[in-house]
Amino acid sequence: MPCDLFGFCKYETNKLVRIQSVRLGSLKWALNTAILVVICIMMLWNRNYQQFDLVVSSVTAKVKGVAQTNLPGVGNVVWDVVDYSGPSQDKNSFFVVTNVIVTQSQRQGKCPEVPSKGRLCRTDKDCEKGHWDQQSHGIQTGSCVKFDVLKKTCEVSAWCPVEAKTKPPRPALLAAAENFTVLIKNNIRFPAFNYIRRNILPEMNDAYLRSCQRTGDPLCPIFRLGDIVREAGEKFSDIAIEGGVIGIQIKWDCNLDRLSRRCLPRYSFRRLDEKESNKTLYPGLNFRYAKYNIVNGVEERTLYKAFGIRFDVMVFGHAGKFSFIQLIIYIGSTLSYYALTTVLIDWLIGTSCYSAEVGQNYSEKKVEAVQDKQKCILCVSYVDENNIRLVKRSQKKSLQDVKPMLVQPREENTGHLRAVLSLLQPDANADPKAEQLLAPKPDPNSSPRRPAW
Ligand SMILES: Nc1ncnc2c1ncn2[C@@H]1O[C@H](COP(=O)(O)OP(=O)(O)OP(=O)(O)O)[C@@H](O)[C@H]1O
């Protein structure tokens, strides 16, 4: 019937079947215990019983160290932190110059442009007065002048002499920056718990900070630049030539519960810019700055094209504290895992893992079809016009209630009645009461007993 097909005339509910079996009982408890153990391990491992908050942080860094370099055309120069830190420091990052191209004693004037940035020429006609582009060091005067014994280039109004070198020196002039150290101060806060901490821990004192080293003490807040670059998987002498960007990650994973309190930083390092300088277009990191002075009343400057490493300090982390609500939510979310026990044992019984006889017996006991006394209203619409009228009047009644409403069963309307009864009760033909209803009217003379209805 269509109502059966779509499940409108069915309601399914669970039936509890108790199987007296030591084997299945033991299996059930073993599985439940295993599930409980897994749930507990997951809870403790992930701290699902805690409420979490994200870190809010501030970072400052101070680099220290001195290095002596032999600058071409300048001689020996000692560099200290003011020289190699670059002109500015960004928030959460610091810069260390590792290589440099120096152009000394530049003055405002007219001089030949370098061939790599300007135009080679033969006569003044090849140069355009007032012309410049993004690569130029100055504005063309319109004259073609000697650059060296072989070449002539267009003359420019610029800071002269213009910077001539394009490639950074190899090896890097300030490769000794490897031994510089940086003190990183990181203050953190977890607003939800009003908890404040810094990476210079309360138990650290001045003597400790002067002597600590990252190799022996992973909590030491003073780092050798060479160690940072090495832990980032790079070679300092290579990255020092063209510069690069190294990330210093500070991770805070704090447990603020009283019994297991722990809140310590973990440092890790990685290179953030493109690694392979011979394959990468425009590799490294550099910028220019100048130092100005007056010589004989004329302003001069020394131009530095500085290559170096920028260290970006990134802080992330979270803190957790016991929360009864989180614990309840976690327990609630894990209860469904116990259904796995039933699924697994049902599957075992249903498969050849268990004896076929027991499996069959179990299936029969587990699923039982029951007829409802109340009839389904939707069934009515599938009867012919006459029947609809009959059924509609009796749709909420049992078979016995229908009896007085039915016409007396005669030969010609037996088929008509059978249709009605089968609608009221799908198994009407098998029901002795229905059979009784459908039986031909008994002859009062031949039989002393009348039908019950
Ligand atoms: N990069 C570093 N390497 C080693 N020690 C450092 C470094 N930066 C700072 N320190 C030392 O750590 C301590 C705290 O530094 P902080 O900058 O707070 O103090 P300071 O007295 O201003 O330092 P400074 O020595 O620069 O004057 C100081 O003794 C300082 O010398």
Automatic annotation (TrEMBL):
Q: Which GO terms describe its biological process?
A: calcium ion transmembrane transport; response to ATP
Compartments, record wording: Cell membrane; Membrane
Q: Where is the P2X purinoreceptor 7 intracellular domain?
A: 379-453
Tell me the residue numbers annotated for binding ATP. 62-64, 181, 286-288, 305
Region labeled Disordered — which residues? 432-453
Known PROSITE patterns for this protein?
A: P2X_RECEPTOR (PS01212)
Q: List all Polar residues biased stretches.
A: 444-453
Q: List the disulfide bonds.
A: 111-160, 121-144, 127-154, 212-220, 254-263
Give the membrane topology.
Multi-pass membrane protein
Entry-linked Gene3D superfamilies = atp-gated p2x4 ion channel (1.10.287.940), atp-gated p2x4 ion channel domain (2.60.490.10)
Q: Which residues are glycosylated?
A: 179
Q: Mind telling me which GO cellular component terms the entry cites?
A: plasma membrane; postsynapse
Where do transmembrane segments lie in this chain?
A: 26-45
Which reaction does this enzyme catalyse, per its entry?
Ca(2+)(in) = Ca(2+)(out)
Which keywords describe this protein according to UniProt? ATP-binding, Cell membrane, Disulfide bond, Glycoprotein, Ion channel, Ion transport, Ligand-gated ion channel, Membrane, Nucleotide-binding, Receptor, Transmembrane, Transmembrane helix, Transport
Q: Name one GO molecular function term.
A: ATP binding
Stored InterPro entries: P2RX7_C, P2X_extracellular_dom_sf, P2X_purnocptor, P2X_receptor, P2X_RECEPTOR_CS
Which family is this sequence assigned to? Answer: Belongs to the P2X receptor family.
Function according to Swiss-Prot or TrEMBL: Receptor for ATP that acts as a ligand-gated ion channel.
Q: What protein name does the entry list?
A: P2X purinoceptor
- Species in which this protein is naturally found: Scomber scombrus (Atlantic mackerel)
